[in-house]
Design brief:
The complex is a heterodimer of chains A (162) and B (437).
Chain A lengths: L5 H8 L2 H25 L3 H36 L1 H4 E2 L2 E2 L1 H17 L1 H4 L6 H5 L6 H31 L1
Antiparallel strand pairs in A: 1-2
Chain B lengths: L2 H11 L18 H28 L31 H27 L12 H28 L9 H33 L2 H6 L27 H17 L3 H4 L46 E4 L3 E4 L1 H6 L3 E8 L5 E11 H7 L7 E6 L8 E4 L1 H4 L5 E6 L2 E2 L9 E3 L12 E7 L5
Parallel strand pairs in B: 1-10
Antiparallel strand pairs in B: 1-2, 3-4, 4-7, 5-6, 5-10, 7-8, 7-9
Helix pairs in contact in B: 2-3, 2-5, 3-4, 3-7, 4-5
Classes of the chains: A mainly alpha (162), B alpha+beta (437).
């Protein structure tokens, strides 16, 4: 670690560009502070947890989960090349694309898809919309399209190699 | 060389294992061009999100009366906002439809952008200099703010209130925290984004198949992997996958905003059910607050509208129906992004009621509901809104008396007014002379 007497020297050694950047950041923190006090005023711990948890939830939970699943699949197919192709066509992205689109839909509509305790029925007077059914149908449709495109690719590959 | 410099150099040369080492990140797609393409879309999208969000806050007319303000301690963060106009009738329908639907569409792009820069989270050492440390603190506000705004928005439109705070306060002040960090981020990185966008041709990238996809040349920000693995998807494939996710989100939700025949296409949206198709001769539509939920007991003939201005009047529903009736075709748009679509409302013009109450020209209007508890049991309308030609105290919709859930015996309908301010089950209307405080 630097000694305290380093700090003034380091500040004076800062480039002009760096000091402008630091000033801009400090100006931004003034607005952040002004809004932040109001943001936290009702329930500092609750709001703070959700705010930091939002970044941490993505960076340390969601990202490792989806990137890890994808990496595991990619490594498996690299080690077992025979598995990676069907009829000479690499099928990985025919799985990836519908899985990613379906995964994003699940992520966004998670409360209604999983039937978590929402108050939508109190608001609308109607039973919660059947989003689980819709999501499953859309997911099946996405995989069906992907499968159909793969089939066409396979057929054209077979024709061109025949 | 100072002690700090030596420490920084030693730390840079000996990062901890795992994600802190550059070799851990091997995707050949990460690089300044890829990040810049996502960034330029987000730059436009987030700017529009902030402006439409601010418009939605202004649409409640928070500076007209304290009761209209969901965040009364806002201070400089909105006390300068102008009043909201009473038209065109589709104004709030469009601004808020864009706000909510665009927010959904941007989610895959935000996720992709975060994916593209994630190695930077594990930079080692965590801070190289004072400026670098402060900038990283600002990035926490940027990422935390972006995800916080998306999460609170997405949970709110699904009525999933799992958090221990109020939505309006969290989403509004959260937006200001985010935008402060966003502006400084844009100021720092705009030039790099432009340079990166010019480093490759989009047209060429869209023509480059997987077999020819290789990493971008090494960049000063170290986004490019020093040891890239062979590509498993092309750049165009990855961008296409992100675009497809956005388009599917859009296509399966925008119908709840457009309404009418399009509503049934909103398969993945909270308000995709079309109540109109079951009885086309007298179409019905969804509500945001039921009579039961608002604690409204069945209203009988003893109901009177209390009208207050220079004089006080008490009017029965029969008397209201005997006044000149005006019909207006107006949508009601909700802060949650969905809308009723255009419906045909019939009732008494607010200007006619103002005249009956002997209100001075330019009076504001305070409307109170029979509603017990919950939010938005009353609202104050500006002189412009109360004086608009199509601003009504509606008694009927689509040719029939209002149902209890639609606000029987009478409800307010004003062009371009956010849904919750179109007060239902009206019991008292007070015309307030004098200019707004």
């Amino acid at each position: 670690m630097g000694y305290p007497h380093d700090i003034p020297r380091r500040i004076s050694a800062m480039t002009r560009r760096e000091s402008v950047q630091l000033l801009a950041l400090l100006a931004s923190f003034v607005v952040v502070g002004y809004a932040g006090i109001r943001l936290l005023s009702g329930n500092p711990v609750g709001v703070g947890t959700w705010f930091v948890g939002s970044a941490a939830g993505h960076d340390l939970l969601l990202f490792p989960l989806y990137a890890g699943l994808d990496a595991a699949l990619v490594v498996l197919l690299r080690r077992r090349p025979a598995l990676a192709t069907v009829g000479g066509v690499r099928w990985l992205n025919y799985l990836r694309v519908p899985a990613v689109v379906s995964g994003v839909l699940l992520l966004v509509w998670l409360p209604l898809i999983l039937g978590l305790p929402t108050v939508i029925q109190d608001a609308s007077g109607l039973p919660p919309p059947p989003l689980l059914r819709h999501w499953l149908a859309v997911t099946a449709f996405l995989f069906a399209i992907s499968g159909a495109v793969l089939t066409v690719r396979l057929a054209s590959t077979r024709r061109s190699t025949a | 060389m100072t002690v700090l410099d030596r420490w920084v150099r030693r730390a840079t040369e000996h990062p901890p294992p795992g994600p802190f080492r550059a070799g851990f990140w091997r995707s050949p797609l990460r690089g300044p061009w890829f990040t810049a393409v996502l960034s330029v879309v987000l730059l436009a999208g987030i700017t529009l999100m902030f402006l439409t969000g601010l418009a939605s806050y202004a649409a409640y007319n928070p500076n007209l009366a304290p009761g209209n303000d969901t965040t009364p301690d806002k201070g400089l963060l909105g006390s300068w906002l102008p009043g909201w106009p009473a038209g065109p009738s589709w104004l709030y329908w469009v601004t808020q439809g864009v706000h909510v639907t665009l927010g959904l569409v941007l989610i895959p792009i935000v996720l992709a952008k975060l994916w593209s820069v994630l190695p930077k989270l594990f930079e080692w050492p965590p801070a190289r200099s004072l400026t670098h440390l402060v900038e990283r603190a600002s990035l926490l506000l940027l990422v935390g703010g972006a995800v916080f705004e998306l999460v609170t928005g997405v949970m709110n439109i699904q009525y999933f209130y799992a958090w221990p705070f109020g939505f309006y306060q969290a989403h509004y002040y959260g937006a200001w925290v985010f935008i402060a960090a966003f502006l400084v981020h844009v100021a720092f990185r705009l030039r790099r984004m432009v340079t990166a966008l010019r480093s490759r041709s989009l047209r060429n990238e869209l023509r480059t198949p997987l077999e020819q996809t290789t990493a971008e040349p090494p960049d000063p920000d170290h986004l490019v992997s020093p040891d890239p693995a062979p590509a498993t998807i092309s750049r165009r494939g990855a961008l296409g996958m992100v675009a497809a996710s956005s388009l599917v989100l859009l296509g399966l939700s925008v119908g709840q905003t457009i309404g009418g025949a399009a509503r049934s296409t909103a398969l993945l949206a909270p308000r995709g059910r079309d109540l109109g198709s079951s009885a086309p001769e007298q179409p019905d539509f969804q509500v945001n607050k039921t009579a039961a939920g608002a604690g409204i007991a069945p209203v009988d003939d003893t109901w009177r509208l209390e009208l207050k201005g220079d004089t006080s009047r008490s009017l029965s529903r029969v008397q209201l129906l005997a006044l000149p009736q005006h019909t207006a075709r107006l949508p009601i748009a909700c802060v949650e992004g969905w809308s009723t679509g255009v419906q045909t409302w019939t009732g008494v013009r607010l200007v006619d009621l103002a005249a009956l109450a002997g209100a001075a020209p330019g009076a504001r209007l305070f409307v109170e509901s029979l509603q017990r508890g919950g939010g938005f049991g009353s609202a104050t309308l500006s002189a412009g809104q109360a004086g608009a030609a199509d601003a009504l105290l509606a008694l009927q919709v689509n040719g029939a008396d209002l149902t209890l859930d639609h606000g029987f015996p009478a409800r307010v309908v004003v062009p371009a007014l956010p849904g919750v301010h179109n007060t239902k089950w009206v019991t008292r209307m007070t015309f307030l002379a004098g200019s707004a405080p």
